[in-house]
Every structure is written in C-alpha cells, then in structure tokens.
Amino acid sequence: MERNLKIVLVTLIVILLTLISFVGIYKKDSILYKNIIADYLLSSNLEGKRVIELTIDTSTNEVKYDKDGNVVEDSENETTSTDTTEENTDEETDTTENTEDEYTIVNEPVNPEEKLTVENYKITKKIIETRLESMNVDNFIVRLNEENGKIIVEIPENGRTDEIVSNLNSVGDFEIVDQEDNTVLLNENDIKEVLVGYNTTESGTGVYLNIQFNKEGTSKLEEITNKYISSTDEEGNTVEKNVTLKMEGEELFSTYFSETIVNGQLPLTFGSATTDVSTIQQYLQNASSVAILLNSGKMPLKYNIESQEFVKPIINEKILNISIYVLIGLVILSFIYLIIKYKKYGALTVIGSVAVIDLLLLAIRYTNVYLSIESAIAFIILIILNTILLKNILKNINKKSEREDIYKAIKNGLLESMDIIIVLLIISIVFTFIKWAAINTVGILMFWGIICILISHLIFTRTLLLNSNK
Q1: Can you give the pLDDT at residue 459?
Q2: Is the Cβ–Cβ distance between 142 and 168 less than 8 Å?
Q3: Which domains does the chain have, with CATH numbers?
Q4: Cα–Cα distance between 253 and 394 in angstroms, integer?
Q5: pLDDT for 246-266, tens place per residue?
Q6: Rounded to an integer, what distance in angstroms lies between the CA atom of residue 362 and that of residue 451?
Q7: How far apart are CA 56 and CA 182, in angstroms?
Q8: pTM, two decimal places
C-alpha cells in the first residue's frame, strides 16, 4: 500500500510539473492575471527581426532673439523646425535681422556641430541599449558608425516591436517650468528614479508615475511646492501660481501644489481611475514609456528614425511545424518502444521521462537559451540518450526482481551509460564557449538536457522502479 502511494505521489508531482511547464503559473497583477513563468526566447531565424536605422537629425530650429539676446516666444512667432538643405550645410546658423521690431531670427541646428562627437555617439548608443534592457528586449544588436553617428538597431519582431521602436529615438527631455516665463525649475538631471504604480479603489484602478528626485532635486521640489500654490489676494480673489510639466518639449499639464513636498517624491496620475482593462493597459504602457526614458537618461543628440525593415525568419512556419511534429513523433516512438518492450517498468520510466521534458522546458525558460532550428539536433541527441539510459537500466529488471536487484540495475545502467554521458557533457561544454549562435544553442541545450535527465531519473524514475514490485 505504501509503495502504491509513493507511485501515485510521484505521478501527481510529475503532472504538476507538466502543468507548470506547459501552462504556467498565473498571478494577479492589478486587475490582470500574468504568467510568472518566463517566456521562451526565439532566435531571429524563427521569429524574424526588425532592423531600424537611426540617423542624426540635421534640421534647424528658427529662434527669435530680442536686442538683448533673449529668446522671444509668443503665439505669433513660435519656434519652428526646417530641414537643412545642401546649400547651407556648411553654415552653422542662418541669421535674419529685423531692425524695425529690433529682433533677430536665427536658424540654429538641432544638433550643434560641437556636439557631433564620437563620445556623444557612444553615449547615445549606450542609452539605447539601456532602454532596450529596461523594456526586457532580448537578443538585440546595436551597431554604431563612429564616423557619421548612424546607429543600426536589430530587435526580434513580435507584438511589442512597434512600442519598443517608439522609445528608441526620444531624447528623454523633462522639465518643470514656470508657467508665466518658462523658467526651468527642475529637469531630468534632478531625477533619481522613476517608478510606475497603480492604486485600486471602488471607482476603479488608477495608474501613476512616481518621480523620486535626488538630493538636490528634493530641495528644489520643496522650494517649488512652497511657492507655486493657490492663494487669496487682498480682495478675496483666488490667485494661482502654476508650473508646467514638459516632456520632449511638449506640455503635459499645468498645476499648482496644495501642500509642501519634503520627501522628494512627485506622483503623476495618468488618466483617471477606470475598470476598463484595455484602458488600464494603455495607461500602464504610457507610464512605463515615460519611466524608461527618464531612467535611461537624456540623449546628448537628437536622432531620427531613417528607416525600418522587417527581415523575415529564415525558417518558415511550415518547416518549423514539421520539425516540431518530427520531435514529438520521436518522443512518442521512444515511449511506445519502452512500454512495449518492458511493460509496466517501461511505463514507469515514461513517467520519469515526462519529468525530464518538464524540467528541460523550465530550464530553457530560465537560462536564456535561444531556441532555433538547430535546437532540433540537441533534442534528438537527448531523446536517443534518454532511451539508451533507460534501456540499460530496464534490461536487468523483471517481475522477480527484488528491491535490491532493482537498485543494482539502476546503478549498473547509469554506470554503463556514463561513458556516452561524459562524452556528450564535454561536447556540450565546448559548444557553449563557441560564439556561433547555432552551435552555442546546441551546446547549452545538450548540457541542461543531460542534467535534467540525470536529476529526473535519479529522483522520479528511481522512486517509481524501487516501489514497482512487492
């Protein structure tokens, strides 16, 4: 009875592992349920990729100065942007004077000549890489041409690609300014960290951005929140002194402060509380984009997205499906062979083999293994190794085998298979140090596959076989 209970318990554990590895574990995040098990990573030859070309912005801004050299901003003469033509590329600025109104209009490059340095190109490249990492983009490539500052970005093509691309060339400019004279009170240099949060109430879920300022920024924020408030004048009228928050030069909103902020934390609400899931997701996406831009730092140069190109996967869907079916067929055939040849004992080892698959799938998810068409080679080798190991174990087990006989059969089977296991382990370790992705993937898969085979059969299969006979 006790032996049967152990077999049932092991079987239930394997079923649980199967559910986790194939279905996942879902946890409530805000009002959404998300799978906390990591996703599979697919190489570009299975998924395709987007190639984005970023080039230096060569446009100019038309800026108007008064006779004292101050920038003039009004509703009739706003700063405009024009493209730089070939005729004026050798000129840094184009100046027009108006003596009647005593102002001067200057066409200033968006990216001044003195900023077009290799150092700034490298800083921009590093910021783009930081943003991609913050957005959990895997298997990306960022290349820089140090002569002209051109940056090529390659990222996997999936449902998030458009969102990711939209964050690549944003400068990351953030300012809190005086609403009346545009005096900059705080900027991105005063920020320590930006986090996205949410708060659920009876009216719904609200999304907010929590900006944590550094020591200097905290001091400035306290001063600002003391000054920019709503008050009442001598005649009893309400007087509001407002600040304007700007992102990428665009006004987000204007406000005043109802209380002094001394902890350096400024929460900004995105939209209003709602119960609509798609709206909440959109708010979270918008808030996350702002947080990524501010946390990665401000780009020293402004870039344009010159072009985007989708590179199709080398392996089409038909070939991929055929490969998957072939692997599944090989696994099923190996299971059928074990069951037919070794009956009950073969069936018990199949349960252990299912555990091998479960553990390997989880290992693939958590060890940054990129699946590619070459991965099929590793899977085929592992299927053969697993079958050979189990055959060596089962050939010395029968109905008359006592517990000690089964133990010896397991031990002898492992020893008999150890030579091939050691050879494959050495090959897999060598392959993992090869930079060629196709070989590297095969090596990593083989290594983790062998580890999973040994763990599963030493724990699950061993327990099942030792409790199989009375």
Answers
A1: 94
A2: no
A3: 2-42+313-466 (1.20.1640.10), 58-110 (no CATH), 121-309 (3.30.1360.200)
A4: 73
A5: 888 888 788 888 888 999 998
A6: 12
A7: 28
A8: 0.67
